[in-house]
Every structure is written in structure tokens, then in C-alpha cells.
């Protein structure tokens, strides 16, 4: 029973009691409009067992200027033999904004016809799914209504925007023994000359160094080429609550997400093996893998990544399951850094990982939003010094550190850092 | 253009009903020389106007109760019966049209929305017109019913409510 019926019922009852108390027939006649109103509502409400409605949903995603919009269409088909009066209402999805159209509509639908609601959602990233649509069938006055949930499923995954990076020639400390693009400092079947050794039975004849062999009678020499292999790369994206900063629509975390997606795409395109760990609302992982399928997995994880809410154990990086990354792999951590994070980097190095830190600079990000009075400037200076000290202490662990002002392009910084750390050995 | 005209029909009827409601109550009170009550009726019209901007709140329901209370008070203080009954009917119309305007105001003016609006207005006209017609006939055909018989009928109607409820439940 909805609020309209309750109000009309209460008015009828009040008028009836007043008429009885005052013994005034005219007061009883004043009930008539309300009684007729209620009566017509009851009379014109449809029988539930005769209702035969079906729903279909379609969604089309378009991306322009970094903004993603999804055009939603929900159609309700009336397969009943009579006209039905419907209120169609679709559920709003969290973290989306309806930019065009409406989520609710009242319509009268003739037999065999269908009614639609159309609206456009705007969002930046995420995974959204719909299972059903709410439909209330009732009388035209909206008094007696039957609520129904009609199945109309659809789901969309809006992935983070990827900036295409040119390939960076990595020189990791260890490589995976699969053909790739990184010179592995091992003799084998490659293209670059690596060295000469004495012939071993089984060596292909075409690799014999005939000139050297001619100078040494009764001895054969074989040319060796440098093997080219792939790297094992792990990405860790930090989405702890205290790391998130937001100015208007711009979020520091979103910069991290976008960079992680771009790096993953670049490395996978080069043929490397990638794994991902997102420390956010949920601890999301993509175990090591190659190629487009892995890129789909990584982007799927990133599209679902949300900033962690509330204090949790994962607020401390020391409890992360870093052993999911293969030993000796190159780990790139994308984190704005917290004061007590040093031990995490020490642990990573202790396990033998080669590590690189990309730290989106929160001070640079917040600069435009902060006051420019002397106290604030002093506070910024202090925090900047603390951050500089922490970054230096991490760099002393032989970890290349990128202090990234997020409004600058990340690609040259990553390229320089990876080139500088080429051949880094302990 | 035709669609737009049809959609604004609700608003035209709403404005007309509001003017008529305020006029009915004010003129009725003025005729029996209750000037303070006439002023209250004008104020009631003002509150109705204000509630148009807050149609989703409880304000329209409050205005309906206030208008019906004014009509009842007027009837008890000597207002003409048809004016009181008319005021009740018009208050119901204004309240209902406010709700309709809120529901379909944001919709695109498409054929199905227009059909819903027309169906709604037809049902409302039937209810209020029929009731007013019955009330007018009731004014001319005075039937004297003993009080105990009337009370028994009302008791029967109240006891029969559970039947109505079961009927509704079956329908739903």
C-alpha cells in the first residue's frame, strides 16, 4: 500500500468520523470524491496473473577525451492483452553520473508495444553490471501498483586509459629462458656476436668460425651469439586510503592506475611476462602471464581497483604477499609513499628482487589547492624534506627512484631510470 | 509542438484547479462573512503555490489535509454544501496533478508518456466529476436514514474492508 492510498484512506475515515459525530450528511457527501478516486484506482489496476512483461537491455560504450560514456537502453515489451500503465525505474550505479536522459519513466503501453528508457552514464573507470529492471504496473492514478523485477542483464567493463609508450630496452639482472628481446649475457642462438669457443660435438656446422679454425690445425672453433630472452616484471599499485588525494575530478590514484596500465601494455607488447598486485579496497592480483590475455587480466584488475576504505591490515605494505612474484623479477612499485614504507623496500631487496619505485608526488599534485601563506609554505617545505630523505634512503637500497610530478609525462622519466639501471648488478 | 502542448495540459489544469479551489473557499467564507477564514483560504492557496516547487516532499499532502479541513470547518460554520464538496474535489485534483506533474515532468514528451497523462487525467476527471454529480444529486434527493441504520451500514463497510483487501491482494 503506497503513501497515496494511506493519505486518501485517512481522509475518508476522518470525514466519516466527523460526519458521524456531527450527524451532518453533507460531510458524508464530502467523502465522495475520495471514495470515487480510490474506487477507480482499484477498478483500473491490472490483474497480476494476466501481466506478461519482458525486458531487454543494451549498452553501448564510447570513449572521447578521456571520458567514457555508456548509452543505456532498456525496453519493456507488453505481451499482455490490455494496455498497461507502467513506472519503469532503473537502478543507479555507484560512481557513475547520469548525463543525459532519466532513470525513471511513466508510460502507458498498448498490447504488443514496447516502452523504453534511455540514458547516458558517464564515468572514468570501473566494472558495472545490471541484473534486472524495476517495473511497477498499476492503475493510471498510481494508487494500486504491483512491483516486479524483470530480468534484463548486462555488464560493462570500463578500463583505464592507456598511453602508448615506445618500447624501452630493459637490462634486468635476470631473464626468463624464453626467446625475447633482452640480451641475456649467455651464449646461444641470437643475432649479436657474443664470443668464440672450441667446437663441441652437436654444434651446427654453420656456426663454425672457419678463419680461426684455419689458423689452428686439428682444432675447430664455434661462434657464439648472445641469447635474447624476456624479463619477468611485477607491478605493484598502491591504493591505500591514506595515499589518495583528490582535487575536483582529478585523483592521484587515477594517475597511478593509468601509468600502471600503460607500463603493463608496453611490457606485454615487448613480450615480457607481467604480474600485478593492486593494494586497494580489495587486494587484487594478476598472476604472471604473457600476451593479450594477460593484458586483459591486468586491465580487468585495474578497472576494478578502488581506494581502500577504513583501516585494514593491508595499510601496512609489510603484509603484502610479494612471493607471488617470481624470484629475481623486476618489480616496479607505483606508490606515493608513506613514512613507514622503507621496511617494505628492504624486504623486497632482501628477497632478491630488482626494484624500481615510481612515486607520484603528492606535494606537487596538491600545490595548486594549498594556501600560500607562510605557515603552509613552511609545512610544505618540511614535508618535502621528509619525503626527499625517505626517497634517498630507498635509493640507497640500489632502487631507482622516480619522483613523479604527475602533470609531467611519465615516459621519459621511466625510460631514463630503466636505462640508468641497465646492467645493475650486486 | 502538439506533444509539448499536451504535456503542458497537466500544468494548465493544475493552475486552473488551484485558482478554482482558492476562489471556492474564499468566496464561500466571504459569503458567510468570515473574513479571517477567507484570508486563511487565500494563504492556503499561497502554500499550494509554494508546494509546487517541493512536490516530492510532504508539503502537498499537508496542503490537501489543510484544504479539506478548511472545507469541513466552513461547512460547519455555514458554508454552502456544494462549495465545500467542490473544494474537497478540487483539493484532490490539485494534489493529484502536482504528483503527476512531478512524475512525468522530467520525461521526454513522447507518445507513451502522453498516453499515460491522458489516461490519468481521464480517470481523475471520471472520479471527481462522478463524485460531484453524485453529491449534487444527493443535495436534491434527501433521504432520511435513521442514525442506527447509518451506523450499522458504516460498520458493515468497515468490516467489509478485509474483503476489499483480499481482492486487492489477489489482484496483485
Main sheet characteristics of chain B: none
Give the end-to-end Cα distance of chain A, rounded to a whole number of Å: 76 Å
Which range does the strand content of chain B fall in? under 5%
Largest interface: A-B, 51 and 52 residues
Question: Sheet bearing the most strands of chain A, described?
Answer: 6 strands, mixed
* CA-based gyration radius of chain B: 19 Å
User: What is the helix content of chain A?
Assistant: 25-40%
| SS summary, helix count of chain B | 8
Number of strands of chain A: 18
SSE arrangement of chain B, N to C? HHHHHHHH
What would you call the structural class of chain B? mainly alpha
Strand tally of chain B is 0
What's the multimeric state? Answer: heterodimer
Keywords:
heterodimer; A: 426 residues; alpha+beta; four-stranded antiparallel beta sheet; 18 strands; elongated; B: 172 residues; mainly alpha; 8 helices; 83% helix; globular
Walk me through what this model shows.
The complex is a heterodimer of chains A (426) and B (172). With 426 residues, chain A is of the alpha+beta class. Chain A is built from 10 helices and 18 strands. The model of chain A has no long low-confidence stretch (mean pLDDT 86). Chain A has helices at 3-22, 25-29, 32-44, 210-215, 252-269, 291-304, 342-350, 362-366, 374-395, 411-420, and strands at residues 53-64, 67-78, 84-89, 97-101, 104-109, 114-123, 126-138, 145-158, 176-198, 221-230, 232-238, 246-247, 250-251, 273-279, 283-289, 330-334, 354-360, 401-404. Chain B has helices at 2-7, 9-31, 35-51, 59-76, 81-105, 111-140, 147-159, 161-171. The radius of gyration of chain B is 19 Å and the shape is globular. The model of chain B has no long low-confidence stretch (mean pLDDT 85). Chain B is mostly helical. The termini of chain B are far apart. In chain B, 36% of the residues are buried. In chain B, helix 2 packs antiparallel against helix 3 (35-51).
